[in-house]
Amino acid sequence: MTDPIADLLTRIRNGGMASKPYVDAPYSKMKAEIVKILKQEGYVKGCTQTDERTLRIYLKYTEEGKSVITEIKRISKPGCRVYSKQVELPKVLNGLGIAVVSTSRGILTDREARQANVGGEVLCTVW
C-alpha cells in the first residue's frame, strides 16, 4: 500500500455509504490522530484500538440514517504533496467543514493551525 491515509479515508467513506456501524483499519499513530480530530469535530462517534494492529472507527449518522460525513477527500498525496502557510490554509465551505493539517505541533484542524500560527501539509478535507 503506497498511501495508508488515503486507505483510511476510503474505508470511512465506503463504510458510511454502506451504513456500517464501524470500520476497521490498520493502526498507526497518524491515523489515530486523524480519527481523534474527526471525533473532536463530531464526524465520527469514536475509535478504539482492538489489538496492536487494528483501529476500529465507529461511524456517526443523522436521524434519517445518512452519514454525517458528506465528503471526505485526500488533498496531499505521496506523488504531489500540498503544503500551506498559516495565512494560506484552506477554509472548507467557509468554515462549515474542516481541513486536517500535519504541522510541527502535530495533527491539527485548519482553525487550530491558524490560531497556533503554524502551517503544514494539508492531509484532507471533511464536510
UniProtKB/TrEMBL annotation:
Keywords: Ribonucleoprotein, Ribosomal protein, RNA-binding, rRNA-binding. GO terms for cellular component: cytoplasm; ribonucleoprotein complex; ribosome. Pfam families: Ribosomal_S8. GO terms for molecular function: rRNA binding; structural constituent of ribosome. PROSITE patterns: RIBOSOMAL_S8. One of its GO terms (biological process) is translation. Belongs to the universal ribosomal protein uS8 family. Part of the 30S ribosomal subunit. Contacts proteins S5 and S12. One of the primary rRNA binding proteins, it binds directly to 16S rRNA central domain where it helps coordinate assembly of the platform of the 30S subunit. NCBIfam families: PRK00136.1. HAMAP family: Ribosomal_uS8_B (MF_01302_B). This is Small ribosomal subunit protein uS8. It comes from Vecturithrix granuli. The lineage of its organism: Bacteria, Candidatus Moduliflexota, Candidatus Vecturitrichia, Candidatus Vecturitrichales, Candidatus Vecturitrichaceae. The gene is rpsH.
